[in-house]
Queue: 4 jobs
Job 1
Amino acid sequence: MEIKRRKTRQVRVGDVRVGGGAGVSIQSMVKAESADVKAVVSQIKALESCGCEIVRVAVKTFDDADAIRLIKKRTNIPLVADIHFDYRLAIRSIAGGADKIRLNPGNIRSRGEIAQVIRAAKSSRIPIRIGVNSGSVMSRSQAADRRPQTDNRKPITENRKPTMAGHLVDAALGYVKLFEDLEFRDIIISLKSSDVASTVEAYRRIAAKCDYPLHLGVTASGPYDSGIVKSSMGIGALLLDGIGDTIRVSLTASPIEEVIAAKRILSALGIRRSGPEIISCPTCGRCQVNLMKIVSELEKRLYAIRYTLYANRFATIALMGCEVNGPGEASAADIGIAFGKSTGMLFKKGKIVKRVKAKDAVRELIRNL
């Protein structure tokens, strides 16, 4: 099935095009203090080597902002400065060569301060991401709810309160209006919640209201296993709708794992392929080999070479536990093995090539890939 993607204006982040028909780009975020230039550069180089195309760093202090210049000198992929609370950090980061700024409408709200950031971004010809998250939006909303009501103000009934998605969209569009009033349209938008359904609803709503490119993600999705599930559901649902121009899988894990997860999501949807893909049966009582062990060994071997030797070889590898799921059902695979008792038939494009022993299966697949 071909996914019909939403039409958007195009924005450039360094040499990466976002939106306007460009491919869905993969992002991650450095998990070290930005002032620690050596650690940041090391992480960025590792991220770039595994396929990350845009990387973000947290800028909490002026030392962090000043480090942008040094980081840029030692790395190649576009660098995004993540700014909260203090607009001056954005201006300092732009002066240091940041390729994009992320601002949070939840904690930088002064029109005058935003105007200064926009002026600097215009001068350097870089875009700004309006990055809304549920934590900041809800804290403001709850503060508003605690304000005493006047006698002539009708109480808001529960069913009239905006949803989380509504809060996210309203916050983003309010910021967008301010940017447009200041004649700035090099904008990317994100609306992230840790709740999958709210995140998906928010992106669907805003996709219908503007043509700016969207950065997808489920924020604070949690540790590796549960985070992968939540991110895949949220990001995948939107990508199937044709919504989304750049993505980040947010995990409480290594940023390398974020990039690999993003690549797997895009590959599963047929949007981008990256290295060999394994398809394997779930096994049942007919299986007479330890297929889980074989699949695990193959995955480890491919993991080690996925983004190097075979990075541009998009083979599909099938491992099937019996003749029921053999070459017939896995005929679309480029190569595979259908197992019997202790041996299996290696096949390519549905045609049997030779018999192999189970203990040699992974070696034979890699050799014949």
Job 2
Amino acid sequence: MLGPLTAAWRFRHFITSSVRSEFASRFARSRLGGLWMILNPLAQAITLAFILSTVLVAKLPGIENPYAFALYLMAGTLGWSLFQEIVIRCLSVFIDGANLLKKLVFPRICLPLVVVGVALVGNLLLGAAVLLVFLVLGHVPGPQALWLPLLVLLTTALALGFGLILGVLNVFLRDIGQVVPIVLQFGFWLTPIIYLPEMVPEPYRGWLSMNPMFPVVAAYQRVLVYGAAPDWQALAWVGALAVVLLGLALALFRRASAEMVDLL
């Protein structure tokens, strides 16, 4: 089980150089460079925030800032965008890297780890932009925001567990690559990012507790908007799920690794 992780550690310089190379190739001849990674999710969040705060005049209980709903939305988007990018990129990482896998000798587990590295750097840039917008809107996150790195780690582990399993299965059954983006679209709207959990009708509110991203997104909103500590009791089962998924993902990857290259 630890074999792929040990191999990845030996090739850590390959992983970091691959992350740098991807950024360099992605933004070659671009004057804004890495800013393009944050402009799209940030523009969507600001647009929705403007509609909610100004057009619909939505209020957030307990927060006096007139743009409180905008803050709530952007905090939730920060967590969701990291999860979504890792899952989507891992979904096709082995298919996209087929030529690389056949031409070079390196641990195959490095490819999803490169995806994680790129996603984390992009999320760091997005987080900096979100905090800047918070300051412009007159909101300064409190000391509870120091829990943010731990939430990022939890989100990354959960996304990598899902993404690696789906990425391996997608090599053998390509329909998965078509279904997962649709499921993630439903997942976005079934996670309280642009609405409050209290807005969900009581008969359906129990379904929220089955969504692992619900307590994660809620934790981002608590530490960044409400200035409260994460609800660790709600996050406990998510952490346990992330560990189980990562274990299953590594076992599945190790078992199917040789066959994947033949199919690719």
Job 3
Amino acid sequence: MPYQMLLADALERRGAKVRFLQGYKRVLPLSRLLRTQDCDILHLHWPEAYYPRRGDALDLFRTARFPFDLDRATQHAALVTTAHNFHAHDRVGEILIGRNVRYANRKSRIVFAHSVGAKQKLVQAFGLDPSLVRVVPHGDLSVAMAHPVSQTEARHQLGLGDGKLALMFGTVQPYKGLEDVIAWWQEARPPIKLAIVGKPGTDEYASHISRTIGDTSQILSRFEFLTNDALGLWLSAADVVISNYRQIFTSGAASLTRSYGVPLLLPRRLDTVELDEPTPYVRRFTDLATDFRFQLDAALSVPPSFAAAASWRQACNWDRIADLTMEGYRCALDQKKCAA
């Protein structure tokens, strides 16, 4: 999703000059790049992007050097972070990665969180000053996509038949709880087609999910990279989107689904994902064994409507996101004037 580009465009409309760091060095990438950049703010979105995470001895050594690299980088610019994740989805080198995420957040002059629940978790887990954690909603990703087409047209283009369609989309990875939903579908056999679409994290995991689906006629998979156009078609075709993350801090996919006005079904445990509830377009289930079917039926009773999501899109439009971000930047540069 083009989160950073959309944010950068909105910031530049407000007079900020935005540069993306390029040409990373393998040794101390942030501090070496910042020495050549004339900038006031270093805005870090995904700290794990700046150190390897494959898990071999050399990579772990480089991961261990991240705090030193970040400390040197902040001698050249004020650090702010956006806490998209509480920890990396890939948990290789978990102890070091957890330490690095903690260090980045505690080193930051301002931390942006996407919800009140996320802010509370950051404050509690990392001992952050609540006044330095600012809530900025996740921006509206639908602006980077084509306007929805009719459900009939979308299904025609995708080669789908009639009947109710539930969608699980995005990168196909274990943390999304796909196996549990597949197992429920195979046991309950609802008269609803389930589509699992997106690029697999690995070929091995794609094969595992394909074997798990087996010959279940009500489940189809399309393991491929989703362009914005293709994703727009799938969202236009769907009656409901299901998210069964085992754990997640925020979710661009949930925000996008909400922007498209497609009913969304997700677990209650994802309490840091804020979607302007209560609303008939968001239904939460406790677990698959108890109330999932009830909440699924309730979600399917609400017709998808892009128009009905207009107020949500307005609340998280990029001009508003940029205004809130700029306020945070000003505080990072002059913390004496900061206020939560």
Job 4
Amino acid sequence: MAKSLQLLIILCIFNLTAVPLMAADQTCKTLAVQIKRERNLLKKQTVIQKALKLCPDDAAIHYGAGYAAERLRKYEKALSYYLQASELDPEYAKAYFGLGDIYMVLGNAGSAIDAYEKGLQRVPQNKRARASLKVAKIKHKAEQGEAITSSEFIQVMQQSKKKETTQGAIDGPLLRMQIHFLSSSAQLSDDAKAQLQIVGNALEDPALSGQKFEISGHTDDTGQPENNLVLSKMRAEQVRKYLLNTFAIKPDNLIVAYYGDTRPARPNTTMENRALNRRVEFKRLDQ
């Protein structure tokens, strides 16, 4: 009889604690769905703030908050929410895909590759993430100075155009390349000409012919800013001149821009980062 009474007491305590937990879990699920479905941005933000207070440990809520921040181009905030979602639920593939997308917007292809691969380990059939991973790998190769093919250049430039307005965001489709110039000059090396053969073949391809592109020159912060600005202009102009003289490209389709050391891809704190900052970027423009 005593054992039966003991069991009854345990069951009562379990029911008293389990019901509120189940109700809270259901509330969080409802809020996550509400965040996803809400189209009004102001109302969505209200729901998100409420949900984060009620469900601070819910990965789906943090993912929803990250996605909303991404849509508003608040990329650092979106990055924080996606990271929290991945930490709260390490098996939540969508959080890793969100991280990959943000890293791509911020121009960090290496971190994007890592994030996409983690997500695909959990959901290997996601076609969009696989396509994004391919583009991230191409961009990473190009910015590291490794050889890419004309078809890879085309693949990057055929991405849909996204208007990004946040400072530091990539206004794609864009490809960063370490074009090899002779030291402190705008003279193209033989390696640079080989790189530009790939670019020129891609620009002549029917998939890109007729498209307009910006060729922008960038330097690291070594030397005087005014000298860096001049050098970046000379290098971008030399790239344009070589492409026009070697390939059947209309002059109006290649526009030069130059930024000196004002738009570093990485902080100028190491030799490796400075090498990444000494670059030429190719960006497809709207027609």
